[in-house]
Amino acid sequence: MKHLILLRHGQSLWNLENLFTGWTDVELSPKGRDEAEVAGKKILSSGIMPRYCFTSYLKRAIHTLDITLDTIDRAYLPVVKDWRLNERHYGALQGLNKADTASKYGDEQVHIWRRSYDVAPPALDPSDNRSPALDIRYRNLSADELPLTESLADTVRRVRPCWEEKIVPALQLYDNVIVAAHGNSLRAMVMMILHLTPEAIVSEEIPTGVPRVFTLDDRLKVVDDKYL
What we know:
With 228 residues, this protein is an alpha/beta fold. The chain is 39% helix and 14% strand. It has 8 helices and 6 strands. The chain has helices spanning 13-16, 30-46, 59-71, 98-105, 107-115, 152-173, 183-194, 198-201; strands at 2-8, 52-55, 79-81, 176-181, 212-216, 222-227. The chain has a 6-stranded mixed beta sheet. A hairpin with a 5-residue loop joins strand 5 and strand 6 (222-227). 38% of the residues are buried.
């Protein structure tokens, strides 16, 4: 049997302030750092020790993985960072307060932007200083690869090549793999693993800092799915 551990980053400073975050590189809050440590303790207690790791380009996920690995005394493990595991890009909403945005546009519209499968928020202007094209870590990516906004469907299309080309081959080589990422990039992965419909995935919630373990057979079919 193989195990895939999915871990959403701990609470970030912008989670705490109720702001749309997306690709903005925000640090963990003190609570988020504690959540990452508790996640490590849960993994240690389970005995399901990862041997290979993936995370995004965003430090709230990177630091969550670092703290978790340090807690289980596995800081030496190989880690692959992939921009395709970044959070869903929230476009022009990034940095805005969620409650204020609902007051401006209405609760229903904000709910559609946040929870629908294929409706994206308003896009950033390419010249906006929040554009990923202006960020040095994405300098080798084409304009077509870099989003100015994304729906969940867009996020699934972005995550899929990482899943198929990197994570699946790692699972074929290693018994236990951990992916520390974000609510929507992990929802995209859950959709692929469980073959969920768009209608089913919109109600899927991924809590911060709680390891979710998929037990897989040698053909990578799900045998068990549980939170630690």
